[in-house]
Amino acid sequence: MSTLLIADDHPLFREALRGAVARVLPDAQLREADNVEALYALVESEPDADLLLLDLNMPGAQGFSALVHLRALHPQLPIVVVSAREEPAVMRRALDHGAVGFIPKSADAATLGQALASVLDGDRWAPPAALSAPAAADDEHDAARRLRDLTPQQFRVLQMLGAGLLNKQIGYELGVSEATVKAHVTAILRKLGASNRTQAVLIASRLALDPGAIVPPPEEAE
Asked: Which of 59, 62, 150, 164 could form a disulfide linkage to 155, CB 3.0–4.6 angstroms apart?
């Protein structure tokens, strides 16, 4: 029996995906997550899952960072990005960062079924425009390579830095001391080759859907 994971924060679209999967794989077991923290826990609890359908705009994720992080932690798990962002360049970037497919949210049920059948057979699937778009830039690949070295907790801290949270706020959210957060930040800076948190966030922002929209965080004493 196949196990498919669905990660999307919109209940109606999760329902649509459930219907599409049921038509292709009537006996499939479906598990769902509606935010990034729940997704990480779900993937950990389902190490033998056959496929993850991942929305790019999940709460707690920025662009392709969650895709890159999950590919590093769980290289055996095929990931298909499902997104309302349908620009050819966005689709190509998802494939370049390790997705086995890209399904636009505007796809009809027949296309959705065809895409799922293709990737479950071991093939890649994406609209033709994705394959003719320019490849992801070298600096983006470099940022992805650095992010792969982060532990799950360091990755969470980096995401919170990107959201503008201070050490004290991050500690509260994670249930750890401010000193522990500072230790994580120090490790993040070392692994990313960054001299401060602003630079770290700017490196990570290369994986954002719209890098220019990322606001650097306030500086603190490390």
From this structure: 150
